[in-house]
Amino acid sequence: MRQVTVTYHRENNGWWAESPDLDGYTAAASSFAQLRALVVEGVAFYLDDAPHAIAEKLDSGAELVDQNSARTGWTGSSWSGRLATADSAPRRSFEVRHAEYA
Question: Among 55, 64, 74, 88, which has the highest number of CB atoms less than 10 A from its own CB?
Answer without folding.
Answer: 64
